[in-house]
Structures are given as structure tokens and as C-alpha cells.
């Protein structure tokens, strides 16, 4: 496990593989890891931060995946203005058109790294988009971007 197998060269992925390997040894988990390819989270810790998990548009095109794309200006959210009055940022979701599940998310803006785990849960859990409407984000928070992305897709 870890860098040596060349699957995903990050500390977090090595730790993930270690958990899977440990569970396999203990015979308590499926004998394969599943989040090495489809849901590797990444953050560029710059100002603003860039956080991404799953597919980007370019990767979807390269691998022939049919996706719907939704974009939203995070700075329009009340939660963002509360976070920083001059907040500027952007969010993008990729939805698999056939399966109707989120397959990619990218966020740019101050503090967006904290949005990444919710995106990772949505992708690894293969949560149907219709169910995401029922995941109510607290107001006013930047998490409301999830709702706005659903609305942007619906209204496009
Ligand atoms: C500059 C830089 C920045 C990074 N930033 C991040 C980040 O922000 N977030 C993130 O998730 N990942 C980051 N990474 C990647 C992360 O460091 C690696 O993915 C992670 O350390 C891999 O852990 P590992 O245990 O698999 O391998 P390693 O950490 O390389 O550990 C392998 C160990 O095995 C030892 N070893 C090698 N050969 C032998 C031998 N024959 N006998 C005994 N011991 C041996 C080595 O000395 C080493 O201690 C970064 C990497 C670099 C280089």
C-alpha cells in the first residue's frame, strides 16, 4: 500500500489503502479498494484554495463520459458574504447523465477545502441527484452551494 503501488500518490490515499488492507486481513471488508480512481480528493492550499474530487470536464471528455455540468458563483451566497464580505469563488458539479449521480466536483475560493468531504461522500455514496435535493444545507453557510448547483442544473 502507499506510493509503492503507484495508484494514487498521496498520504491520504496510502492511509485509505492501509485501512482497506487492514480490514481485509481482519476479513471484515470487501477485498478491494474502490476510491483510488473515481474519488481521489485534492486541495491546492493557495489563496484562494482549489479543491477537487472525482472527474473534471477534461477528464470526462478524455474518458468519454457523458456528463452534465453545473456552475455557480460562490460569492452570491449569504454564507460566503458572512465568511468574507468580498468573497469570490466558483463551484462546479459534474453529473453522470445516465446514472444521475455526482461524479465530480471542483471548488475555488477561500475555505473551500472544507466542502470537499461532502462532495467525496456524494460521489463514493453514489447519491442520486434527486436525493440531494433533500440534503438541506444550513443557512447562511457556504454549503448552500450544493442547493444552488442543483438549481443551476435544473434551470439550465
Ligand atoms: C513535496 C511533497 C509534498 C506532498 N504533499 C502532500 C500533501 O499535501 N498531501 C498528501 O496527501 N500527500 C502529499 N505528498 C505525497 C505523500 O508524501 C506520499 O504520498 C506519502 O508520504 C506516501 O507514504 P508512503 O508510506 O506510501 O511512502 P513514504 O512516505 O515514501 O514511506 C516509505 C518509507 O519506506 C522507507 N523505505 C524505502 N525502502 C526501504 C527498504 N528497502 N527498507 C526499509 N525501508 C525502506 C523509506 O525510507 C520511507 O521512510 C507530498 C509529497 C511530496 C514529495
From TrEMBL:
Gene3D superfamilies: 3.30.390.30. Keywords: NAD. It comes from the Bacteria. Pfam families: Pyr_redox_dim. Residues 40-146 form the Pyridine nucleotide-disulphide oxidoreductase dimerisation domain. Belongs to the class-I pyridine nucleotide-disulfide oxidoreductase family. PANTHER family: DIHYDROLIPOYL DEHYDROGENASE, MITOCHONDRIAL, DISULFIDE OXIDOREDUCTASE. This is Pyridine nucleotide-disulphide oxidoreductase dimerisation domain-containing protein. It comes from Streptomyces mordarskii. The lineage of its organism: Bacteria, Bacillati, Actinomycetota, Actinomycetes, Kitasatosporales.
